[in-house]
Design goal:
74% of the residues lie in helices and 1% in strands. The protein has 17 helices and two strands. It has helices spanning 2-24, 28-38, 44-47, 57-73, 77-109, 118-128, 134-143, 149-176, 181-210, 219-237, 241-256, 265-268, 271-283, 288-319, 324-327, 339-347, 355-386, and strands at residues 394-395, 398-399. The longest helix has 33 residues, at 77-109. The relative contact order is 0.18.
Length: 400
């Protein structure tokens, strides 16, 4: 049944996304998400016999690995030297802005769950807020063939803020949970440090093995196998799969130099298939009952996070000396949120005292993710258009 359902999502999602892009001028990912929402277990999915979304997890993890590899390969040392200060400044600004804005908003709202102290609940939600989803950003960048300073800055920020998000979450859980600061730092070192080492080693091995493949058609199974190995090792050993895959892509480009494109083109040819599956699967998490129960908290989280990202990211980029086209538009590209945030929320289910609160937070993040991905894709496109970095998209033979 799952295979049949995946086929329905793939074909119907592509149709809806293409029609939405052609006639409504919205990014295709918006149509993919809306189609997924329509087939959620509480709606048409239940009628078709799909009662949960657990079966999608392996494919979602694989899709995130592919997307992360492409992001890592989109950044070169030359770009980092030119934009390094802007990327770091904007990332620090957006992370601190989202954290402080959500913390203040939840405290002012005064809502908590499962007898968790308000300060603890607010801190945990704030710790999840900075994580930005790479998939929507990459999908929009590639659909509209965007290029320029803002595009490079956004891709660089995505690679950094996941590491910062893990760091902040571990520290917050040490403060509000039963852990200690030492154990939190140990977790951070493991999740980030091992991801950097394994990702770097993986990139080097991929580059060396690719020299044995003289046929271009053999590179795709090599790359997919390496990405799946990386994601599987990360899930088994407990380090960041996204960060490891990003580092692998970055390392491949570093070692290959001008010849690197041959190790990205095969994966990029699969991108649209990956995006359709990833975003329709994300839409399956839509839960109308959760919206009815927690809509005030969801609205506060959504708007507070958006404000913090916009003000913090723009201010940080400006203080770091970024050009106006970057600091005035970077905030529009930071709204999407997805896999990393949901993954952090899922960790709460195993934290003593947070079991019930964790379920609420997972529901909240999963539901708001749908809106941040859909609205965020439109926002990313708007920011790139304002910066003058949208390329040419062929829609029905016409250039947009």
């Amino acid at each position: 049944m799952e295979i049949l359902f995946t086929g329905i999502l793939l074909t119907a999602g592509l149709l809806v996304g293409t029609l939405g892009s052609r006639y409504l001028r919205v990014p295709r990912v918006v149509g993919y998400i809306l189609l997924g929402m329509l087939f959620a277990p509480n709606l048409l999915g239940g009628w078709l016999g799909i009662t949960d979304t657990e079966w999608t997890q392996p494919l979602v993890s694989a899709a995130l690995g592919v997307i992360a590899y492409v992001i890592g390969g989109a950044i070169s040392f030359a770009q980092l030297r030119r934009l390094g200060c802007s990327i770091v400044g904007a990332t620090l600004g957006e992370v601190s802005g989202a954290f402080l804005a959500v913390l203040a908003a939840v405290l002012l709202l005064g809502i908590t769950v499962a007898d968790i102290p308000l300060w603890s609940f607010a801190l945990v939600l704030a710790a999840v807020a900075p994580a930005t989803a790479p998939a929507a950003i990459v999908a929009v960048v590639h659909q509209y063939r965007a290029s320029g300073l803002l595009t490079t800055t956004l891709l660089g920020m995505v690679a950094i803020d996941d590491a910062l998000g893990i760091f902040i979450f571990a520290l917050v859980m040490a403060v509000v949970g039963s852990g200690t600061l030492e154990s939190a730092l140990g977790t951070v070192i493991w999740e980030i440090g091992v991801a950097l080492l394994v990702g770097g080693a993986g990139g080097y091995l991929v580059e060396r093995l690719s020299r044995l493949s003289h046929e271009q058609s053999l590179l795709l199974p090599l790359l997919l196998g390496a990405i799946l190995l990386m994601v599987g090792m990360a899930e088994r050993a407990g380090f960041s799969a996204l960060l490891a895959a990003m580092v692998m892509g970055f390392t491949v480009r570093w070692f290959c130099g001008p010849q690197a494109e041959r190790l990205f083109q095969p994966v990029e040819d699969l991108e649209e298939t990956v995006f359709v599956l990833f975003f329709t699967f994300a839409g399956l998490h839509f839960n109308p009952e959760a919206i009815a129960a927690y809509w005030p908290l969801m609205l506060v989280y959504f708007f507070a996070r958006a404000l913090g990202l916009f003000v913090g990211g723009g201010s940080g980029a400006r203080l770091a000396g970024a050009p106006r086209s970057v600091w005035s538009n970077v905030g529009f590209g930071l709204f999407p949120q997805g896999g990393v945030a949901i993954g952090l929320a899922l960790l709460l289910l195993h934290q003593p005292g947070f079991e019930q609160a964790g379920e609420v937070i997972v529901t909240l993040i999963a539901t708001t993710t749908l809106f941040t991905e859909a609205a965020g894709a439109i926002s990313v496109r708007y920011g790139l258009r304002r910066a003058g970095e949208l390329g040419i998209e062929q829609v029905g033979g016409k250039a947009e």
